[in-house]
Design goal:
With 371 residues, this protein is α/β, with parallel strands linked by helices. Among the domains are: 1-12 and 20-37 and 67-73, no CATH class; 84-112, no CATH class; 115-211 and 252-335, 3-Layer(aba) Sandwich (Rossmann fold). The chain is built from 16 helices and 12 strands. A 5-stranded parallel beta sheet has the order 3-5-2-6-9. Helix 1 packs antiparallel against helix 2. The longest helix has 22 residues, at 80-101. Bound molecules: 2-acetamido-2-deoxy-beta-D-glucopyranose (2 copies). One 2-acetamido-2-deoxy-beta-D-glucopyranose is lined by residues 310, 312-313, 317, 327. It is an enzyme of class 2 (transferase).
């Protein structure tokens, strides 16, 4: 029954696709795949989702993928990648994980149709600190599921409301933690209060890194997209010979961790905020991830056996990437030609940040040992 209806839905899409024979063949194969995946007709369960994802995405490149994802009502959808990932990946984890505490493994049907929940934990910052790496590392854990993209809900999209936000989250089982990461939250004034309004129990993770290297990394990234950018020095200083730093430049402002943190501590106790060292994430990823798992109340499942150190690259990589075939490493952009910043400018910036860093160490009770 479901398969017949599905086939009916398929036909209109075929008109839109170029290279029709190939597309029709792949659509037909996917139709067979979905029918095999959802033999009980669950695929046709009603959606009731107010934002049909079929109309959101565009771009001819993704048309085939889009039309396939539209086949499944968005509320009951599980991408083929996710489905196979759950089969190939989560299940053994569950078996492994539940062996300890004796609760039975949930049946596959639960995995298909969990609920979307607002996040329990959010990686709120900072840009160029290593937030993507922390998210990729923590989502190896079978009890964590995360939104794939940065939602920017609490800064840019707050007007869309919590239901919209929830809609971006992956389906989870009762026992699983929902997470997202948007690095700009940490430096956005309104965000702490807004997250507090959603839930005052939200756990917050901040990946921090030496503000000088962070600023240079930030600038390097912007430069790669905007080649005619003024020089780093021109942007960082209002008057370099006088050593006057331009604190309004975002690349500088983001590194004033103590100032931003004050804003968060008006709403959240320090114990509810976990700081990951961006530097130690590189030298000891398993150690940093152990602390993250402890903070989230998770069993330590992500350990050093998930990482290997690539000596050529000088960075740790994940042994078993979640969704791609190639290894996932920190320092992806290390191949980028780094901008040469003169020694004097770096020294001036170190002097500038030092008091803020010291204040930050005192606030969080940890010395990150930035120069
Ligand atoms: C920086 O300050 C010095 C000393 O006051 C002044 O001579 C110079 O013109 C200033 N440079 C700029 C770019 O404003
Ligand atoms: C290590 O990194 C280098 C340089 O990026 C890369 O060419 C190589 O394939 C990597 N080796 C492994 C085992 O990941």
């Amino acid at each position: 029954m479901a398969c017949v209806l599905l086939f009916g839905r398929l036909l209109p899409f075929s008109h839109r696709l170029r290279g029709t024979s190939i597309c029709l063949l792949s659509l037909f194969l996917s139709y067979l795949f979905y029918c095999a995946l959802f033999p009980d007709g669950a695929i046709m369960q009603t959606s009731g989702d107010p934002t049909p994802s079929c109309q959101r995405a565009d771009g001819a490149k993704r048309r085939l993928q889009k039309s396939l994802s539209c086949l499944l009502p968005s509320d009951a959808r599980l991408s083929a990648v996710e489905a196979s990932r759950l089969k190939a990946d989560q299940r053994p984890h569950f078996a492994h994980h539940t062996a300890g505490n004796g609760t039975p493994s949930p049946p596959m049907s639960n995995l298909k149709f969990g609920n979307k929940k607002l996040p329990n934990a959010i990686i709120v910052g900072v840009k160029k600190g290593g937030t993507r790496a922390v998210l990729e590392f923590i989502r190896i854990h079978p009890d964590v599921r995360a939104a794939g993209t940065e939602t920017h809900f609490f800064d840019r999209n707050y007007d869309r409301g919590l239901d919209w936000y929830r809609g971006l989250m992956p389906r989870t089982l009762e026992s699983q933690i929902t997470m997202e990461k948007t690095p700009s939250y940490f430096v956005t004034k309104e965000t702490p209060h807004r997250i507090y309004t959603m839930s005052q129990d939200t756990k917050l993770i901040v990946v921090v890194r030496d503000p000088v290297t962070r600023a240079i990394s930030d600038y390097t990234q912007t430069l790669s997209k905007t080649p005619d950018l003024p020089s780093f020095q021109d942007l960082a200083f209002r008057n370099q010979s006088l050593g006057i730093v331009d604190m309004s430049w975002n690349a500088i402002r983001i590194g004033l961790y103590a100032l931003h943190l004050e804003n968060w501590l008006r709403y959240f106790p320090l114990a509810q905020i976990h700081f990951v060292s961006g530097e130690r994430l590189i030298t000891d990823p398993a150690g940093e991830m152990a602390r993250v798992q402890d903070f989230l109340g998770l069993k330590r499942i992500v350990t050093d056996k998930h990482f290997y150190f690539n000596r050529t690259k000088g960075f740790p990589c994940l042994k078993k990437p979640e969704s791609s075939g190639s290894p996932r490493c920190l320092g992806k952009s290390k191949g980028r030609t780094h901008v040469q910043i003169d020694r004097d400018a770096i020294e001036q910036l170190r002097d500038f940040y030092r008091p803020y860093n010291v204040k930050f160490y005192e606030m969080v009770g940890h010395d990150f040992k930035w120069e």
